């Protein structure tokens, strides 16, 4: 009879064994980072799990290193390896651009790797982008020797399974989250005990425009819907508008503190979900200590790798899937730019198209793009005649369904270019509607109405 590794690890002798192994693997951050060599590729645990002590120790070795590739999604906290003084020692490859590496991308010291979130792990699994090291931040081990990825499974569990070496900070401040979130002591090569606060992301309260957008988005969400929400003031404001809804669910790449009040009121409970019934599913969180404490050992939440959470086929199995994403600019035909301002790279694909397509194929699903009608204090229309030169199209005009601004809801799916132009001009800021109408005439998207002459 075949004996599974998990069965062996659960035996009393195995429990004693992992404790010995843990002590043998325990070291300092400085000692652990001595293993990294020039031209190694180093994966960094993302979001609120950024292993800052390991990163500071690695940066201290900058004079000894050349062309170490630091690859990651959005991280919080330390990204000093992307600063000008470390050029030549480190090269950042961002699969989603956060605030802490945006300047390095702009100045050419770092690279952007455009990719759908659910496809990232395939780069590691296939060997297309092999990993030398994986740097993690984990919870302390349980009595069986399993440590939790805590605030973020994201792509990190898969990265750990395919990296040549795994080095982990073990931090008592990291919550123990449930789902596909565990790695055993035997699967980690070096352990560095730390005790520091996790990086946090605090949200600014929504302004008047964002609240109006949230009202319009909330009007599209039925009872029993399963939600995907991005990050920022608008998603949190949308959640605040749903207190009178019933039996909402969550299947989202990430969430923040804004879900807590709806869970406490019993509104967000997963009861009407068609898969993972009674569970709120995500890949990672971006939030504060309040959220970290809330998800700690909380069986309501299930965390899974992004390749599963963001798989459009899996997403589509949720009935009434409502995907709410943001954009920087939308042209008058419905092309959506979410990752750049002209040629200036700003963020990344993220999971936007994963969820737009998943929601589009969900029974009763609604894919939504929400954005303010203007930028630069009202001087620039985000509903534009055409995208800025160099702007990237994240959601194509064939994928777009709902565009929501503070002025209303435009439904574009199945509509001609002339019908789309009418819909988008209606939700543009009034100051720009004449300009957009004139452009639509000139581009032959709309036919000028004949005015009889008497």
TrEMBL record:
Residues 287-440 form the Acetyl-CoA hydrolase/transferase C-terminal domain. InterPro entries: AcetylCoA_hyd_C, AcetylCoA_hyd_C_sf, ActCoA_hydro, ActCoA_hydro_N, NagB/RpiA_transferase-like. Pfam families: AcetylCoA_hyd_C, AcetylCoA_hydro. GO terms for biological process: acetate metabolic process. The keyword Hydrolase applies. One of its GO terms (molecular function) is acetate CoA-transferase activity. Residues 20-195 form the Acetyl-CoA hydrolase/transferase N-terminal domain. Belongs to the acetyl-CoA hydrolase/transferase family. PANTHER family: ACETYL-COA HYDROLASE (PTHR21432:SF20), ACETYL-COA HYDROLASE-RELATED (PTHR21432). This is Acetyl-CoA hydrolase/transferase family protein. The lineage of its organism: Bacteria, Pseudomonadati, Acidobacteriota, Terriglobia, Bryobacterales.
